[in-house]
Amino acid sequence: MFRWLQNFPHLLEVLYDLFEIGLNPLKRWFKPGGRSEPVVIAVEKLGKGAAFNCKMCGQCILHSTGMTCPMNCPKHLRNGPCGGVRLDGNCEVKPEMACVWVQAYQRSLKMPRYGHQFASLQPPMNNQLKGSSSWINMFHGIDTNLPTGWEKTGDIPVNFIKEESHD
Amino acid sequence: MTSNIQSPCSRLEEILRAGHFAITAELNPPDSADPEDVYKAARVLAEVCDGINAVDASGANCHISSVAMCALLTRAGYEPVYQVTCRDRNRIAIQGDMLGAAAMGVLNVLCLTGDDVISGDQPEAKRVFDFDSIQLLRTARTMRDEAVFLSGRKITSPPCFFLGAAANPFVPPYAWRPQRLAKKIAAGAQFIQTQYCFDLDRLKEYMNQVRDLGLDKQAFILAGVGPLKSAGAAEFMRTKVPGVVIPDQIVERLKKTPKEKQQEEGKQICVEIIEEIREIEGIAGIHIMAYRQEELVAEIVEQSGLLPRPNI
Question: Does any CB of chain B come closer than 8 Å to the CB of residue A106?
């Protein structure tokens, strides 16, 4: 319904920041397992569902993926795109659907604030968080609670090009 | 066996580090419980290759498992590259299998996301994709370098892996592809095997960007090549196999060839492509994928002037 919003990723990232500030005063109501949790989940599902086709993974990385929900990728990649993208930029699995990661890449190029995060290495999903509210999880640092083995390893330093535009 | 990335334990790694132009080849898994079927296919490849890729359910079709194939290969003294995909197993199974493979003498691991179940013979199967290729790579590196599982639990004797990843320079978003390679190297890839290279202009452009980033110095890049069996096979591959791009002029060239000579022509094209690839700076070797034409690999290697293989 509001999927057209995704075509304005530069506005969405500003909204994202405002939203985070706006939600801050409500923090004390946002508790995992709290009475307000079902309400928060319902609101998040409705809002992000309409705008991003959100799948409620509970560990939202929208701002790192060009405001494009990676859970719409049939392979559930968090570090896409895979090597199966079709020449027209559509999905290997669903030929009629634009590749989520091609869109994510193109949109991230239009995001001056968070676009560079497209290059960051996303950790494996915490499958226990499926269906919970990523807002609540964010406020309580639950979504950034990574497996010990993952935390222990650093990334090998490499060069990334800074790009002006995509082709 | 202890982990020591300074001194390679994999023969493939040693060959690459010594600066030889390396050759790996794909061994397609038989649909058979007879080990002789694996050995038959391996024998023709081993004489002309430095590593044999044990494919994990190629094209999402059910075959003998890659870990079992690797066990058979190491037992006979071959150098397998263990292909691991994320499609069929979750993180618990994958880490266990990698450790098991290491215990059976497997030293090279190729970390892949894998084709989707929809490409295979059982599209109604449940897809797993608990990891993606990059998370898998980084986890394998954690197991090797930190001697722990992803959970942080200790591994008493860690594996000594030479870690690889795949790359496909030929599909969108093109500008991101070299950076995706950078991401895989950041995660732990030490060697790269690419998708079939038929569009050499695109490959050269890709390698220019890869060299600009210095990535060819951080990982060994093996270009994927393979003989096309016929014009029909080429058409099938470029329309049905995910990620394979074959330019029109190659398909046209095969179509113009009489049917009985098409296989020979396909092999000739492959030899020409290898020749051109060897000229590209930053490419450390080739990876031959001769699906159901394994017997041609020896001829291709010989005609490309890549024999004898280094004896390390």
Answer: yes
